[in-house]
Design brief:
By secondary structure, the chain is α/β, with parallel strands linked by helices. It has 12 helices and 8 strands. The protein has an 8-stranded mixed β-sheet with strand order 1-2-4-3-5-6-7-8, sandwiched between helices. Helix 3 crosses helix 12 and helix 9 packs parallel to helix 11.
Length: 290
């Protein structure tokens, strides 16, 4: 009997030492809407492969010029998530990191590349069919940085029936003043793949229907407040970030419409060290909503 308990103790210790999560990079999903392969990476918590339980899911979006590997290679997400789960700060969860393809997570405004439709109509159902994730708004969160921060806010608030919580970092939210006054070349580069009809536009002509389709501030101003309130919202931005004004304006608009949310300003800029500090905070916010 003593030998049995000794074996059991050694087995438990060994299992704990070698227990680990799993990350798979650059997997593919065939998209009929886009007529191409969509790349995504996935984080599976320790125990996923030999359990039968279903897990809540978070979609974690990359920024402009990034791809489905950014949060893994530059963001250290596996180490961060493993630590937060081990410490009991967040629940075990599946995390999906799709390639944003510099499309601003929206449908191309000339109708030729419906990325947003692919995300909602193909990617989400595909993940739910291929992995043991819990379905429904209560167990589905979304997060991201910069372009992915704005994308996560836009998708969560637009599709409030699908997402229960959003955590956005350094979101690419712009005030009208910054859009009309910004350098034409830099703005054109950012929007070219998603809003081709805005390329070359100047001044107030930039505030057209295409830009409204992208603009989180416009969505917050115009959507029914009671629907916006069904999504738990967290966002933060560094005090040295060039996107500080847009995020502060989003905070103001949400306050004016009495939409509950959490907004934080921390020391930092538009950099990976800042986002690596944001990730555990954002995931805890989402995890607490599950």
């Amino acid at each position: 009997m003593k030998k049995f308990y000794l074996f059991l103790l050694l087995f438990t210790i060994t299992s704990a030492l070698f227990a680990q999560s799993k990350v798979m990079e650059s997997l593919s999903m065939k998209s009929a809407l886009l007529n191409t392969e969509v790349k995504y990476s996935i984080y599976l918590p320790d125990g996923y492969e030999y359990s039968e339980r279903q897990y809540p899911v978070v979609y974690l979006l990359n920024g402009y010029t990034g791809d489905e590997t950014d949060w893994i290679q530059s963001g250290g997400m596996q180490r961060i998530v493993d630590h937060e789960i081990k410490q009991g700060n967040i629940q075990e969860m599946v995390i999906i990191m799709p390639d944003g393809d510099d499309r601003l997570y929206m449908n191309r405004t000339d109708g030729t590349y419906p990325y947003e439709d692919m995300f909602m109509k193909e990617l989400l159902p595909y993940i739910e069919s291929q992995y043991r994730v819990r379905k429904g708004k209560r167990y589905t969160g979304i997060s991201g940085l910069s372009m992915g921060g704005a994308g996560s806010l836009k998708l969560a608030l637009k599709y409030n029936k699908h997402f229960g919580a959003c955590a956005a970092f350094s979101s690419a939210v712009f005030t009208e003043e910054s859009v009309t006054a910004s350098n034409q070349e830099s703005m054109n580069g950012y929007i070219s793949k998603a809003m081709p009809d805005m390329v070359g536009s100047k001044g107030k002509k930039r505030l057209n229907k295409s830009y409204e389709e992208y603009d989180v501030l416009h969505l917050v101003k115009t959507k029914e407040a009671e629907l916006l309130k069904t999504v738990k919202i967290y966002f933060d931005c560094g005090d040295d970030d060039f996107l500080t004004l847009g995020n502060a304006q989003l905070h103001k608009e949400l306050l004016e419409r009495q939409i509950p949310h959490e907004y934080r300003v921390r020391n930092g800029a538009h950099t990976w060290p800042y986002w690596r500090e944001s990730l555990p905070v954002g995931l805890k916010f989402i995890s607490d909503s599950f």
